[in-house]
């Protein structure tokens, strides 16, 4: 995916439709001069709706659509005729899209294909005078106006949904690994910040299973404060089920690099540290077994580690096994506890309707 086509942030000016006014009308016919109220209700104004689409990967199609205005509802008519509803506007967005207001408050989030949520609701139509008749007031002289439109500035942010997020310094071998284990073709070169936008790849596993891997642009010390590519792409890590830390074996201090990466993630969002982690020592084809054993003895004890080489395919399959096992544990931990029956610890009370 070309870097200029990866759009993960757009700002829209949205305005829903206002509700149509209720009708203030009285029925008139030959021989029936006092037929009573028959004013119909106004139509609802159009909603602005977000719909998840798994075939979209960026917000590129919304980049130049700065104004999104829904149509107003029509007013009610005589003979209890209701006004037509304003046409809704449905914006297709990729999964993982979050809508916020300018203050940063989250409004909604789209996570499933076909999921529809109202971003800006249209105004309700007003009641016609027929609604207000009673035994005392048999000829109401008023009807409700429709509710006004809602205008708001909406910020849409994309947070990529992936099973595994690759985290590491620039030139740690993240893009090379993704190109080896999937059909993705990220840009690869021998200089820092080759990857300027996230890349996704589907990794084939045993028995026709698969998982999605995301290559996140390189993180440097101070990224959470805006250095390097800053926090622009750190938010994509939030939607990953687990994190694969990648550090080159020729690093002067592997533990120090690992601590810096952990620190940047914690500074950006402490909840990221709750995700399962694996550590891959890359470019291990450059070292012999003796040096590998010496490095292994110094690695952080709290995270499972493996030495890999994307160039020679060393330990690529064992790495997939470790990732799949971690994903299975993550899914199992996230699964809801099933009720066993009434009167038991998880089943006290009545069954939900």
Automatic annotation (TrEMBL):
Protein's job: An essential GTPase which binds GTP, GDP and possibly (p)ppGpp with moderate affinity, with high nucleotide exchange rates and a fairly low GTP hydrolysis rate. Plays a role in control of the cell cycle, stress response, ribosome biogenesis and in those bacteria that undergo differentiation, in morphogenesis control.
Listed NCBIfam families: Obg_CgtA, PRK12299.1
Originating species: Hymenobacter mellowenesis
InterPro entries linked to this entry: G_OBG (IPR031167), GTP-bd (IPR006073), GTP-bd_Obg/CgtA (IPR014100), GTP1-OBG_CS (IPR006074), GTP1_OBG_dom (IPR006169), GTP1_OBG_dom_sf (IPR036726), OBG_GTPase (IPR045086), P-loop_NTPase (IPR027417)
Binding site for GTP: 168-175, 193-197, 215-218, 282-285, 309-311
Cofactor: Mg(2+)
SUPFAM superfamilies: Obg GTP-binding protein N-terminal domain, P-loop containing nucleoside triphosphate hydrolases
Classification via CDD domains: Obg
Residues holding Mg(2+): 175, 195
E.C. number(s) listed in UniProt: 3.6.5.-
Name listed for the protein in its UniProt record: GTPase Obg
Domain Obg: start-end pairs: 4-161
Domain OBG-type G: start-end pairs: 162-328
Family: Belongs to the TRAFAC class OBG-HflX-like GTPase superfamily. OBG GTPase family.
Subcellular location: Cytoplasm
Pfam families documented for this protein: GTP1_OBG (PF01018), MMR_HSR1 (PF01926)
Principal location class: cytoplasm
């Amino acid at each position: 995916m070309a870097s200029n086509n990866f759009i993960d942030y757009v700002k829209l000016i949205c305005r829903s439709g206002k509700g149509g006014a209720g009708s203030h009308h009285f029925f008139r016919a030959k021989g029936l001069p006092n037929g009573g109220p028959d004013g119909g209700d106004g139509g609802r104004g159009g909603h602005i709706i977000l719909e998840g689409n798994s075939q979209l990967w960026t917000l590129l199609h919304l980049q130049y659509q700065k104004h999104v205005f829904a149509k107003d509802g029509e007013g009610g008519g005589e003979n209890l005729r209701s006004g037509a509803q304003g046409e809704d506007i449905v914006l297709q967005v990729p999964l993982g899209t979050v809508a916020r207001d300018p203050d940063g408050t989250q409004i909604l989030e789209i996570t499933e294909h076909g999921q529809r949520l109202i971003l800006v609701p249209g105004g309700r139509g007003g009641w016609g005078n027929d609604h207000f008749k009673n035994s005392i007031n048999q000829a109401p002289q008023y009807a409700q106006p429709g509710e006004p439109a809602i205008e708001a500035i909406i910020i849409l942010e994309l947070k990529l949904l992936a099973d595994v997020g690759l985290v590491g310094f620039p030139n740690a071998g993240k893009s090379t690994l993704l190109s080896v284990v999937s059909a993705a073709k990220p840009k690869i070169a021998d200089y820092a910040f080759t990857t300027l936008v996230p890349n996704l790849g589907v990794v084939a596993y045993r028995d026709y299973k698969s998982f999605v891997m995301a290559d996140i642009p390189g993180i440097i010390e101070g990224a959470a404060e805006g250095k390097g590519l800053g926090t622009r792409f750190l938010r994509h890590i939030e939607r990953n089920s687990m994190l694969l830390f990648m550090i080159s074996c020729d690093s002067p201090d592997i533990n120090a690099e690992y601590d810096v990466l952990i620190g940047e993630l914690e500074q950006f969002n402490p909840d990221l540290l709750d995700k399962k982690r694996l550590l891959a020592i890359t470019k291990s084809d450059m070292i012999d077994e003796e040096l590998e054993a010496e490095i292994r003895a110094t690695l952080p004890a709290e995270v499972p580690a493996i030495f890999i080489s994307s160039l020679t395919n060393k330990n690529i399959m064992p790495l997939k096994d470790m990732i799949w096992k971690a994903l299975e544990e993550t899914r199992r931990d996230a699964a809801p506890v099933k009720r066993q029956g009434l009167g038991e610890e998880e089943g006290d009370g009545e069954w939900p309707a």
